Structure formats: structure tokens, C-alpha cells
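ok so dumb question maybe but i'm new to this and my supervisor (M.) told me to 'just get the structure for Kinesin-like KIF17' and walked off. so i did the thing. is this what she meant?? sequence i used:
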Amino acid sequence: LQMLEQQVVGGEQAANKDLKEKRQRRKKYADERRMQLVAALQQSNEDSSEWVLLNVYDSIQEEVRAKSKLLEKMQKKAAETEIKDLQSEFELEKIDYLSTIRRLERDLMLFQQLLDQVQSLVRRDCNYSNLEKIKRQSVWDEETGCWKIPEPVIEKTHLP
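this is what came out, is it supposed to look like this??
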């Protein structure tokens, strides 16, 4: 009975030394491969660990599905990166525009205060004594990109 057990447990060729050595080599190779996979998983991050695991496939359909998922994941990451880049670029432009607006508002306030101070010094008989009238008479020239304002004129009144 023991003799039959030993033959059945090892298979038909339990006594064949070549097969035993071949099984041991396969087992050793499988253990080494498992150890390499464990080491790779410990050293790598989440994405590359999935890549290591995806290299072992049972069929072509599995490989296609796995690589399709990986491609979708990479495309999604690329799209997210592009979105983040565009958002940061937009944010920088927005900050630049806001600083330009603030600077222009400060300049406008300076010029307005200067005009208020200088207006009291302009003679009453000059057409520049009334700033609202000058604003109405001024015209924007598209070709030169500047305002055309009326020339200063002093209107002397002659008494009879």
C-alpha cells in the first residue's frame, strides 16, 4: 500500500529524477518571480505596481482590456494635467490684469486730483475753465489712438 501511495502521490513517473529536477527548477523560478514581484510592488508607487501586475495575462482579450484601461487612465491624467496648467495660466493672467487695472485706477486718481488742483488756476475767460465742456468737445481718433481735444482759447470780452 505504501509503495502504491508513493507512486500515485508523485504521479506515474514519481521515480523519474529528471522530472523531479524539472519540477524543482519550475518551483524555484516561480518563487524567484514571486519575490521579484513583491519587491517591485514594495518599491513602486500605485500606478507602476498596476503596470507590473498587468504584464501577466491569460488571454489576448484580457491584455487588450488591461491596456485599454491603462491608456484611459493615462489620458485622464494627461487631461487633468492640461486642465491644471490652463487654470494656473489663467490665474496668472487674471492676477496680471487685476494689477494693471489697479495701477490704471491709481493713475486715473492722480490725474483727476491734478486736474482738480489745476482747474482753479485756469483763467475764467479760457475755454479750459470748464472741464465738462472740454470733455464733450473731445473726440477719440482711432488711427492715432489718442484724444483730439480743442485748442485752448482765451475769450476776451470787449466792453462797448
